[in-house]
Design goal:
Blueprint (H helix, E strand, L loop, with lengths): L3 E3 L3 H9 L6 E5 L16 E5 L14 E4 L15 E4 L15 E4 L12 E7 L13 E6 L15 E4 L10 E4 L3 H14 L10 E5 L15
Parallel strand pairs: 1-2, 2-3, 3-4, 4-5, 5-6, 6-7, 7-8, 8-9
Antiparallel strand pairs: 9-11, 10-11
């Protein structure tokens, strides 16, 4: 099936994308940094956004494989259920926020609060992330190929963060743990999937929850 080329207003583009059957492909030409493109998709389709895009790209979707040939704004892959969103550039704040499944890949850097309240998805960032990456992340996996800013994993629950570079500081209730063979395999598989050949799976730092905030304790009151 020949790929469609879509232009026009955001609603028209999204309406056409949602009408695509499984196995179809489409290219959004000249996106011009517009917001909310390719949201709410629910079919096994391939979508290429051929240029810089705005806020909330690829969010609220299932099954689709979305590639952005450029940077994106806030909330890429927000509340993703399954499928993949691949950003071939940098991402602004809150990449993969509340994402429940699937994979969000950012080849470049990601800004503040990447994977905030992550609920089961995977976020892989080839470069560095800003402050409070993984804030209140409840489940899922975060891979950072560069450095991590302050407050990494603040109020982390069951999600796990792997960082190849330096960590500015850990957030409340986050701690560094030893890598296991399972961790190394997880990172190795993810690196292969994302094409991040600059990451050594055996030389990353694992950050997980210390679990001291699961239940209120008066001796930890200053941390709340």
């Amino acid at each position: 099936m020949e790929a469609l080329t879509l232009t026009g207003e955001v609603r028209e583009i999204n309406r056409a994308l949602r009408a695509l059957p499984d196995g179809a492909a489409a290219t959004v030409a000249d996106p011009r940094g517009r917001h909310n493109l390719a949201v709410g998709l629910d079919a096994e389709v391939k979508v290429t956004i051929d240029g810089p895009a705005g806020y909330y790209i690829g969010g609220l979707g299932k099954k689709a494989d979305i590639t952005v040939n450029g940077p994106v704004g806030w909330g890429v892959g927000e509340n993703l259920m399954s499928g993949r969103v691949h950003v071939k550039g940098d991402a602004s704040q809150s990449a993969a926020a509340t994402a429940r499944g699937g994979l969000v890949v950012v080849d470049g850097n990601a800004s503040l609060r990447a994977a905030i309240s992550l609920k089961g998805a995977t976020l892989a960032v080839g470069g560095s992330v800003g402050a409070y990456c993984g804030f209140m992340a409840q489940a899922g996996t975060i891979l950072v190929g560069g450095d991590a800013g302050d407050g990494l994993g603040d109020s982390l629950y069951e999600a796990v963060v792997y960082v190849a570079g330096r960590i500015a500081s850990l957030g409340t209730d986050a701690r560094i743990e030893e890598l296991t063979e399972t961790d190394v395999k997880t990172v190795r598989d993810l690196v292969k999937t994302c094409g991040f050949d600059h990451i050594d799976p055996e030389n990353v730092t694992k950050v997980a929850s210390a679990r001291t905030l699961y239940h209120f304790d008066t001796q930890n009151h200053d941390a709340y």
